[in-house]
Amino acid sequence: GSLIEQLTTEKYECMVCCEVVRIVAPVWSCQNCYHVFHLNCIKKWARSPASQAEDGNSGWRCPACQNASVQVPKTYTCFCGKVHNPEWNRNEIPHSCGELCGKKRQCLDCPHLCNILCHPGPCPSCPAFVTKTCECGQTSHSVRCGQSTQIHCSNVCGNILNCGKHSCTQVCHAGKCSPCQLTVQQVCYCGSNFKEVLCGSKEEFSDGFGSFSCQNICGKKLNCGRHNCKQVCHPQPCQLCPRLPQVVYRCPCGQTPLSKLLELGCVERKICTDPIPSCGKTCGKPLPCGSYEFIHTCESLCHEGDCRPCSHTSNIYCRCGFKKKVRLLGCFFLFLIAAITFMCDKRCNKKRSCGRHKCNEVCCVDTEHKCSLVCGRKLNCGLHRCEEPCHRGSCQTCWQTSFDELTCYCGESVIYPPVPCGTQPPECKKTCTRPHDCDHPVYHSCHSEEKCPPCTYLTQKWCMGKHEVKQLGTDEFVKSTFRLLNVGDCSPCMTCSLKFPIMCDGTLSIEMVDAKEIAAISIATKLTDLQLGDSVEISRLITKKEMKQARLQCDEECLALQRNRCLAEALEIDDNSDPFNIRSSGAKYSDLLKEDARKDIKFVSDIEKEMRMLVEAVNKGKHTKKSHCYPPMNRDHRRIIHELAQVYGIESVSYDNEPKRNVVITAVKGKSVCPSNTLTSVLDKETQSRPAPPLPHYKQTDKSSGNSGLSKPLKEEPVIDYFDVQD
């Protein structure tokens, strides 16, 4: 009825194009869900890849019910399918032929066809009435045709059960009757044991001698009347007595026929109790002891009955078969001991069923190697551990459940129980209500983390040179601080070109350092406070006191200059003179660097070659900076790179942690220069020339430093280097 109304009023929409289905437009109706589509739309949909079934062989899927169809609709027919291209009649249902539907109803047991006019949607239920019998067939009732309900009466079923002897005692029921539940007594084949079984079961079968085998010795008298049957309880008649004269043809060992022994004078046997003549030869029957390599046989003379115990020795294998032992005692003792096995000391190296642990069982005979340990791995909740036996693959989800409400910090958002273990607190869009260190307005939402994010309120900050005031948030201020540490490009306010003289303790070495580098040394100690949201005044970081405390560490060059100065004063030599052409000889390398270079001359040569190529490339190219990253190396090699970089005027920084710590060098145009003599060439010259005698060592006290004696030698690497914080 709803389909008819929507199609008549043109309010029904096609699911493919989402347009209204007109009363004169060709349509197609799905026979499974009865949705109506434009014929052209359903053709396009059936040919599209999105409509294909998952298996790829079932055809195309209906857009509404996903029912697969093989054939693509090609013609426009009425709903009952009898008329092609039906014409629209104002007095009839749109897209129908106006005749009786005549389709078979969906009910399987309804033989009547649909008797209403051609219509969309499913056919209504059959209005006819039919007579149906109850399940047991004793009564009948008049019901609606196609009604699927079952009819039951109050009478006893009475049908014959599966045994064929008894009848069903249940009230009228659906389906087959239950098997007979009565029990009958059965006897075994030998007649010594009894048991009860269900009537009509397969175990009730009997062949006339009995119904089952009790697995005991039969014990019935044989046909001779003197001996008993020694077979296990069996259904057929017992065999003939094995000692009857007409059955026995050979001696007990089986080597000589009785006919030959009769010719030699042996007495002929008349009944089964008469003894069987012996041939007098060695028995030779195989004994149950021994092995595949050596079979033990009976050494007694031909005899009746069982053979005597073996007197030989036997090899006994351990239970896993890895080792064997030779039993010095006779095989006779093997039968006296129930289980004569021993265990070797070999431990099993196979993986257990979990795939994580080894078996480690001594003399293992297990085939499955099941792991008996507890898994113990943390579950997805992160709080509890798996208590199942050790297994492969991922552990199951935590079965712990909380019956308390789980709320956010402020309590606005709630997850009601039961709450699975490991569930995170719910998200809350309310403003954070936690106590904060600053008095600025809070802009972040409620969160489950104990620590709040940095304050984002804009504050006024002076630049380092006190030139201007900028609006900076705490997070932006931290980023600008990192720019001071040469992590990124410095802002225009931070690129102060002012140089400060830095001296060592002996006032011998002087180096010009940018103001931002000194500020970076001070700010590096304040990074923890900056990351926590605290504000730091940059102008207060560079004070006169810190400038005075900023000192270089004396190196071997300082000591050499001090000795030369003392020697020049004693010989009255002017400091500006250069009689030995020392100052124009090029770059100077420390003795420690030379000593390290002699140990690994190839490494130093490769490093210098890379540095020279880098300096030449940046000086000839368009870029002002050019960097090179060395692979991870040890501490001594990194120190060599840092010292060579100072000679070449190259910036060097170490990154990452051990053992992946590496060095990155950066050549700056105009600042980085290749020395006239490389370290390798200097070492070659020193090797060829005769080493000069060492200068006399004069003990002198540096008054400016206040320390007696010479300064301590330069360490291999400084403990704290603010320009290479990682080292």
UniProtKB/TrEMBL annotation:
Q: Which GO terms describe its molecular function?
A: DNA-binding transcription factor activity, RNA polymerase II-specific; RNA polymerase II transcription regulatory region sequence-specific DNA binding; transferase activity; zinc ion binding
Which BP terms from GO are recorded? negative regulation of transcription by RNA polymerase II
Q: Which residues form a coiled coil?
A: none
* Record's keyword annotation contains Transcription: yes
Where's it found, cell-wise?
Nucleus
Domain RING-type span(s) in chain numbering: 14-66
Renumbered residue ranges of the record's region Disordered: 679-727
Keywords carried by this UniProt record: DNA-binding, Metal-binding, Nucleus, Phosphoprotein, Repeat, Repressor, Transcription, Transcription regulation, Transferase, Ubl conjugation pathway, Zinc, Zinc-finger
- Please tell me where this protein is predominantly located: nucleus
Can you supply one Gene Ontology CC term for this chain's record? nucleus
Q: Where is the PHD-type domain?
A: 11-68
Transmembrane helix recorded as keyword: no
Gene3D superfamilies recorded for this chain?
R3H-like domain (3.30.1370.50)
What positions does the domain R3H occupy? 601-669
Task: Cite the Pfam families for this sequence.
Answer: R3H (PF01424), zf-NF-X1 (PF01422)
Q: Which family does it belong to?
A: Belongs to the NFX1 family.
Protein name per Swiss-Prot or TrEMBL: Transcriptional repressor NF-X1
- Gene for this protein? Nfx1
